[in-house]
């Protein structure tokens, strides 16, 4: 039997592992007790740095120890703030920790803290370090976040960073962080010529759409390029504006296109040059789309509403609707209106999606993208077709069944809301029997006297904020 390796039994192996874990746990407890004892006695020196270093080099995710280490460094460098030796040494230590755990929040944060406090930070070296780490793992979003931080400090040009993103995407299309960084750089390099609310110029948008469809069709099941395409098509937060205003003898209501905190966002509201009104969130939350002011008011022929946010001013003229109300409403903007060149590209991409669906009729990303492309071209002309695609998605992608039903609810409401606002008749909006699961655009519904939302058995009634408005008759 000589020369043969003894193979441990499962019971022996389990006992050996337990013994190792117990020894490690004991050493960890002793180390932590010693660290907190030194900290309590304010013994901030090399021993404390060494002890925290031993534990963090094994587990870099202990944020408490990073805090202790920072406190120790500050105490040790208090007398000589120009000495960068300790800071440089700790930069080397964080690199060791990142080799153990490249996605450690604590290690990346500590590294940025060192550089902010060091008398001689080398920001160019940090950019090179990020490049090195992203060669090892191009999808390390911690490193991407850190890179965006250090390139600002190193004054790296947006052009150079855009080229870096391009190289990473060409190497691997499935790189969410690089696509995201690209979306941040485009508005800087290629702003829209006339409309600051649009992220990039029409010419560059057309180029980006061509790039992203190539990436998407290289691997239709990868979602990164599809998500980037949604950004290009404008599926993001709506532009801030006044949505509606309604005054009755008992209250004033103002609604915005997106939720705001009037105090934190420094927004002031003026009604016929009077800005003394006390506005309260309709839901009681700090941030909301709908705000109300209760009191005693006069129903006049016309009211000018102005909203100021920073150096931006938004206005709406509300007119007398009847003897009891003054109402003003802007037609909702549900998406961008693209130029001819971009629309031609969108049509080409829609044709490509339809061709792919002939071969892969159950491709979920292709179905969803085709629906989004149709809506970008003409959401109302293609309304029934897009609902057909979303209904099919509920079958081919059952894990996101609820998402698709909510999406259908949103699109149905957009059609109904457009008809309601354009009619100028605010007596009633009929939303009954539409298979709604949730209600979007509550802020535009506050002007209706009656809302019929019956026969929607799957409706989430908590989504109906308009029901909180006095004088609004809601039928569930």
If you had to describe this structure to a student in words, what would you say it looks like?
- The protein is of the alpha+beta class and 476 residues long.
- It has 16 helices and eleven strands.
- Strands 3-6-7-8-1-2-5-4 form an eight-stranded antiparallel sheet. Strands 9-10-11 form a three-stranded parallel sheet.
- Strand 4 and strand 5 form a beta hairpin.
- Helix 2 packs antiparallel against helix 3, helix 9 packs parallel to helix 11 and helix 13 runs antiparallel to helix 14.
- The protein is globular and about 80 Å long.
- The N and C termini lie far apart (83 Å).
Question: TL;DR of this structure?
Answer:
With 476 residues, this protein is α+β, with helices and mostly antiparallel strands. It is 51% helix and 13% strand. The chain has an 8-stranded antiparallel beta sheet with strand order 3-6-7-8-1-2-5-4.
List the helices and strands and how they pair.
Layout: H1 10-40, H2 46-56, H3 63-76, H4 85-100, H5 105-117, H6 123-136, H7 141-153, H8 158-171, H9 176-189, H10 202-218, H11 224-232, E1 242-247, E2 251-260, E3 267-271, E4 280-281, E5 288-294, E6 302-309, E7 312-322, E8 325-329, H12 340-359, H13 364-378, H14 383-396, H15 401-423, E9 428-430, H16 442-445, E10 450-452, E11 473-475
Parallel strand pairs: 9-10, 10-11
Antiparallel strand pairs: 1-2, 1-8, 2-5, 3-6, 4-5, 6-7, 7-8
């Amino acid at each position: 039997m000589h020369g043969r390796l003894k193979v441990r039994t499962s019971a022996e192996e389990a006992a050996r592992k337990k013994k190792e874990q117990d020894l490690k746990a004991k050493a960890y407890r002793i180390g932590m007790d010693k660290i907190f004892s030194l900290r309590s006695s304010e013994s901030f020196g090399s021993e404390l740095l060494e002890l925290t270093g031993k534990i963090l080099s094994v587990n870099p995710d202990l944020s408490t120890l990073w805090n202790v280490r920072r406190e120790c460094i500050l105490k040790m460098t208090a007398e000589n703030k120009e000495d960068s030796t300790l800071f440089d040494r700790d930069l080397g230590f964080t690199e060791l920790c990142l080799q153990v755990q490249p996605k450690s929040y604590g290690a990346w944060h500590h590294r940025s803290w060192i550089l902010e406090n060091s008398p001689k930070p080398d920001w160019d070296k940090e950019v090179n370090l990020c490049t090195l780490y992203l060669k090892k793992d191009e999808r390390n979003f911690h490193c991407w976040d850190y890179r965006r931080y250090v390139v600002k400090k190193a004054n790296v040009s947006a052009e150079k960073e855009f080229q870096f993103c391009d190289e990473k995407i060409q190497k691997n299309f499935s790189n969410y962080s690089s696509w995201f960084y690209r979306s941040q750089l485009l508005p800087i390099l290629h702003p829209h010529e006339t409309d600051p609310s649009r992220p990039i110029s029409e010419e560059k948008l057309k180029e980006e759409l061509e790039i992203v469809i190539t990436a998407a069709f290289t691997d239709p099941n990868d979602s990164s390029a599809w998500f980037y395409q949604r950004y290009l098509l404008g599926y993001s937060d709506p532009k801030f504006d006044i949505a509606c205003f309604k005054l009755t003898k008992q209250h004033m209501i103002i609604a915005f296109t997106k939720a705001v905190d009037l105090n934190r966002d420094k927004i002031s509201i003026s009604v016929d040059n009077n800005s003394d009104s006390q506005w309260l969130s309709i839901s009681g939350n700090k941030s909301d789309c709908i705000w109300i002011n209760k009191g005693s008011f006069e129903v006049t022929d016309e009211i000018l509403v102005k909203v100021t946010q920073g150096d931006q001013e938004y206005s709406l003229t509300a007119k007398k609707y009847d003897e009891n109300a003054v109402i003003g409403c802007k037609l909702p903007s549900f998406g961008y209106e693209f130029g001819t060149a971009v629309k031609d590209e969108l049509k080409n991409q829609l044709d490509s999606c339809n061709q792919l669906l002939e071969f892969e009729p159950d491709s979920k990303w292709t179905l969803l993208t085709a629906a989004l492309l149709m809506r970008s071209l003409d959401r109302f002309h293609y309304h029934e077709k897009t609902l057909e695609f979303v209904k099919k998605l509920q079958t081919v992608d059952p894990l996101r069944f609820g998402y698709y039903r909510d999406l259908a609810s949103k699109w149905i409401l957009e059609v109904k809301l457009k008809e309601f606002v354009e009619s100028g008749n605010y007596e009633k909006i009929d939303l009954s029997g539409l298979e709604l699961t949730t209600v979007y655009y509550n802020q535009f519904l506050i002007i209706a006297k009656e809302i019929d939302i019956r026969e929607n058995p799957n409706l989430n009634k908590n989504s109906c904020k308009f029901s909180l408005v006095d004088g609004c008759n809601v039928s569930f």
